Request: fold
Amino acid sequence: MATGLASAALFADSVAALGGAGRRKPSFGALKPSLGSRQLTSRKSLRIEATVLKDEEQKVVVEGTLNLKGFPDDNDEAGSQKVSDDSLGAVMERGVIKLEQTINIFLTDTVIQILDTMYHDREYPRFFVLETIARVPYFAFMSVLHMYETFGWWRAADYLKVHFAESWNEMHHLLIMEELGGNSWWFDRFLAQHIAVFYYFMTVFMYILSPRMAYHFSECVESHAYETYDKFLKSHGDVLKQTPAPEVAVKYYTGGDLYLFDEFQTSRVPLSRRPVIENLYDVFWNIREDEGEHCKTMKACQTPGSIRSPHTLVEDELDDVADCVSSKTG
Ligand SMILES: [Fe+2]
Ligand SMILES: [Fe+2]
Reply:
């Protein structure tokens, strides 16, 4: 328990250091290592990049860094707080991380086996249940962060923005499943909603105790969602390509304001992903990609203080460029 609370405190310090509203922003250079191959450029070049990717959207795949089966281990710098020394504290830290991940994997595997047994031949109800549950952790994270902010302990504005955008994305997955009829039987709604209530309080408790463990648990869930949709696309691809896309999906993925769509994809530059929706296959293809993006965001979150809003990063980069230009011309 004490170690878990220490972990939460460490996470809080790191988030506070990154700062929400009213705090000094860290330099972009300090954040670059956590962003992998992210290339932040000027607004003009962003537009050009987005146009190119729009034409080639179907070629976009989840980057190789996404480990769908495995979960962060002791050697995984992004998935855990890497501890390289052999002091007693470091050994204990590694043991705690291992224990947290073992518990998470056991819990998710157990729930997945139960749902697989119950829904093996009822795909849309199964997706409805999964998507009802999928929104819950983001709401739970926001609840706890709001509580800390209300107490005056620290602010994490970027975390709130990103987690809200994640829950907004999952809500649209849920709306799509509802339009496909996944919620037509009362028992499926009853089961999904009751699991969601339990899952909410469990996540709140876990997030207070150990944010790292809570984010890892969500990574397990998102990883399972990616695999589920990937299998579905492979087994039902031909039928899906002959089926029209639900209207809610067309509106969400191709509608006017895609700010929140960009916001939850923290490993991407805003405007770099613009789906083309022509049939139901495209819808599920993009839902699967969304799950992959959630997975990457949850993995990054396990390193304290590593997450910032993609839009904030672009604004900071533009500020840096403006400062550089004014210092040269001044
Ligand atoms: Fe989802
Ligand atoms: Fe998800």
Summary: Residues 88-118 form the longest helix (31 residues).
